[in-house]
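Notes from the 1:1 (GR / supervisor)

We went over the backlog. Supervisor wanted to see one worked example end to end before approving the batch request, so GR pasted a single chain during the call. The sequence is below; no edits were made to it. Supervisor asked that the structure be written out right there so they could see what the output format looks like.
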Amino acid sequence: MAATALVTVAGCGMSGGAATSGGGAPAARSIVIDEPFGPAADWALETDDAFVLSKAGCLETLVKYESGGTLAPMLATSWTQVKPTVWTLPLRQGVEFQDGTPLDAQAVAGALRHALKVKTPAAAFSPDTVSGVKALGSSTVEVTTVKPDVLLPQSLASPNTGILAPKAYAAGAIDPKGTCTGPFAITKEIPQQAIDLRRNTSYWGGHVQLASAEVRFIADGGKRATQVRTGEAQIARKIPVTSVQELKGQSGIRTKTTELSRTTELVLNNKKSPLDTTKVRQAIQAAIDTKAIAAAVYPGVSRPAVGPFAPGDAWAPKVARPVKADVAKAKSLLAEAGVAPSSLKLTLLAYNEGAGFADLASVIQSQLKAIGIKVSIRTGEYASMEPDLLAGKFDMALLSRNYLGDLPDPYGFLTQDYTCKGAYNLAHHCDPKVDALVKKAGATASATGRYALYADVATRLQSRAVDVFLVHETESVALAGVRGYTIQPYYTLTADLSLGAK
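Structure output shown during the call:
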């Protein structure tokens, strides 16, 4: 796993979300958290909205994803593969949904069956992999898979398999208010802007430190950092590199910077001419100088990408290296493809929430201009762009993607992004060879054998320039007077989070 670096920056006191006592230490037990992404699909759990609910301390799963990728009990106390295609999960006793109804096997089985019945199920927990879920008595759930599935526990750690009370599914859209099991319950929602939460006083996990919280959804990374500096917020996630530098010397503020299992990509629409031609994609890949991008756009907090996975990952190809920028080679590849550079006028989508994407888009525009390709840039919030991305109505797009975000194994990422029927296959890439390798990996119990197959897929994606992998990322978080916080892909607001001087 990636190494972690901690940068401590002196900081300022609080206002806004946390009142202070006479001595200047926070007295109120309330917090404001700025997140880059908000709900975009009416809380549909098969979408990234599930991750928003999980980060907000509301939604919980049967299995917990610990930092470092290991698994631990959450709403289930254990999991056992009793037959090749059958798993049983005893439930934690005494757990209640936030409306006071008990968490029992019927409720859990119903929630998981709902996940299977939606129009576009999450890739790791869908009818393609799971054939049924049922209650065994009141306190055990049985999950049956289509084929032996060694990664089912990882799937059940994904927020996409989060458990809500039965009434959450009664209307057309999901209603998370009062239907979660987590340490915080939603009390108010301002669509696309914020949610207010209060402490769940009956939380099964014990005492919740904070009395209340507000989670704000702010696309502009600089604004998120500013709100911590001015005391309007106490946590701001995914702040830009420039903001980290600006916060130095600010009393009471510190930043955490952690290397992530996340890669920034230039997504190429493999179905749209001329990007459906391998040599054209390879020409674009050869024109992009990832070393210059890492140095200019993300100085000191990224490294040039060697493919979808970072070097040092157990599933990365052992000899992977960044693609060396070569303008002459790029022009030659276009000539071999029979494409005149001047005929290429491509649009690049860059969503506002992406850290450094405005600068990154400009650099790519300049680098492609060097081989004669004209690039126009379109910016906006991610939610406004996603329909076109999913429908293939674009040329190129910047994307920041966590390859362990779906489950603590690359299988979910590769299935979603690079198989022919992948639900998040923005490249609109379809290669039977990749499908076969991913399918084989999903049935391989040995981690060593599975990781070798992932490395083969990574090599194929890189060599065919399915996407241009730009940099491996870090995440910087600004904190003011916060204790108990860890950068983690699924959880931000937790029962252990508190405010006060160290």
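Supervisor's comment: The first strand starts at residue 4 and ends at 7.
Batch request approved.
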